[in-house]
Design brief:
CATH topology of the domain at 4-118: Peroxisomal Thiolase, Chain A, domain 1
Number of strands: 11
Order of helices and strands: EHEHHEHEHHHHEEEHEHHEHHHHHEE
CATH superfamily of the domain at 4-118: Thiolase/Chalcone synthase
CATH architecture of the domain at 4-118: 3-Layer(aba) Sandwich
Mean pLDDT: 95
Helix content: 25-40%
Strand order of the largest sheet: 3-2-4-7-1-8-11-10-9
Largest sheet: 9 strands, mixed
Low-confidence stretches: none
Number of helices: 16
């Protein structure tokens, strides 16, 4: 394999609906924005693309990716569609990385979209629920909010996690999004606001859950030679990992914890793993990406993380899967203030034990506040990570509040189902 770099990216505003734009126009808007930062790049130098969108049902159009390829003027070059539930965008990003790393392409476009507003919310939830086992789980009420409510109930039972800790995640991400004009639902919230919102699936309220969205995002990846020629400050993709698990949680075996380099068997001797409180696929993806990037202690060696927070509870679970804290400590990690930004006002007091270095999680606002147009979400994370590492948040957002000064290395994390597919990618600024 050869080195791969991200050289540009673009996104549309994520919104409840974009009634004036179809999926092709949204992708073109993001693509055109990405090209503005690369005046030396011509369409002729883009060797092909990977397109991601979750469901044909939302567009009512099979082979929509082929239509986007045509609309961008990239025919007859290679293209393919990637789909993997909530992890669709993350899989697309890694598929584009593979195209360049293998030598097949010098420049590859990763593009993703979703137009979820074309159906009612209940219908959209039904389409998403088809990503569960339709023979066993779906017929007995298998909607995803129910799955995640069950999982966090177990987390609360095993580890003492509280609804207030979950609510703090919502407060954090919505407050971060106040400085992100691309976000769907920036808001100044309190813990009481989150807990008094309508209950969806106990203990998850409406503000514990991300929203259906319309939106698009693109990332342009290139070989080292092309990156140096086309971009003044490219960002290297130094590690990738992808983990999987059985779709039915009842089929998941128990066994030893998949250890990261800074962990020991002894500290988990009494833990039933993976249980329904954690995601074995996420731990596997993280271990692969860390090994490739040479990371031995993620909490100390990463500067920020953009992770898949479809639920406040899943953000807490993912802290543990990524090794930011030990299994069972995700709630305490929130209370310590470790995943919060220094220069954003949250209206919270952090009285927890300060055992971890500060590592901002979802400075963009994450899925909770940005929205979740499924095929675009993982690529949106890549774009925000790219801008962070370039030091260009102020340029692209018109507000530098979310910029992490001196950030050298970031992680993006994309998650499908109840952990059926999970991707982790590490991006680094060159010294």
């Amino acid at each position: 394999m050869r080195p791969v770099y991200m050289i540009s990216g673009g996104i549309t505003k994520f919104a409840k609906a974009h009634p004036d734009r179809d999926f092709r126009l949204m992708v073109k808007e993001a693509f055109d924005y990405a090209l503005l930062d690369l005046p030396a790049l011509t369409r002729a130098e883009i060797d092909g693309s990977v397109c991601s969108y979750f469901s044909d049902h939302f567009t009512r159009q099979v082979m929509a990716g082929a239509m986007v390829q045509d609309y961008l003027g990239l025919c007859p070059k290679p293209s393919r569609r990637v789909e993997g539930g909530g992890s669709t965008g993350g899989l697309c990003f890694q598929s584009a990385w593979e195209s360049v790393a293998s030598g097949r392409m010098e420049v590859c476009l990763a593009m993703g979209f979703e137009t979820m507003s074309r159906v009612n919310t209940w219908k959209g939830n039904e389409f998403i629920a088809l990503a569960s086992d339709t023979n066993f789980d779906y017929p007995v009420g298998g909607f995803y909010s129910g799955y995640y409510a069950m999982m966090v109930r177990r987390h609360m039972h095993e580890f003492g996690t509280t609804v207030e800790q979950m609510a703090r995640v919502a407060v954090k991400n919505h407050a971060n999004a106040l400085h992100n004009p691309y976000a769907q639902s920036p808001a100044r919230l309190s813990v009481a606001d989150v807990r008094s919102a309508p209950m969806v699936a106990t203990p998850l309220t409406l503000l514990d859950i991300c929203q259906m969205s319309d939106g698009a995002a693109v990332a342009i990846l290139a070989s080292e030679e092309m990156a140096q020629r086309l971009c003044s400050n490219p960002v290297r993709i130094s590690g990738v990992g992808c983990g999987t698990d059985s779709m039915r949680m009842t089929d998941r075996p128990h066994g030893r914890v998949l250890l990261l380099p800074h962990e020991s068997e002894e500290e988990y001797r009494d833990l039933k793993y993976p249980g329904v409180h954690s995601f074995r696929g996420g731990r596997s993806a993280a271990a692969q990406a860390y090994r490739m990037a040479g990371i031995t202690n993620p909490a100390e060696e990463l500067d920020f993380i953009e992770l898949h927070d479809a639920y406040t509870s899943s953000e807490i679970q993912t802290y543990e899967d990524l090794g930011l804290c030990r299994y069972g400590e995700g709630g305490a990690f929130v209370d310590s203030g470790a995943p919060f930004l220094k220069n954003v006002e949250y209206g919270l007091n952090f009285s927890g034990e300060q055992r971890w270095p500060r590592i901002p999680v979802n400075p963009s606002g994450g899925l909770l506040a940005c929205g979740h147009p499924v095929g675009a979400t993982g690529l949106m994370q890549a774009v925000f990570a790219f801008w962070q590492l370039q030091g260009s948040i102020g340029k692209h957002l018109g507000d530098a509040t979310l910029q992490q000064e001196g950030a050298q290395r970031g992680l993006i994390h994309s998650h499908a189902g109840t952990g059926t597919y999970i991707t982790v990618s590490i991006l680094e600024r060159e010294p």
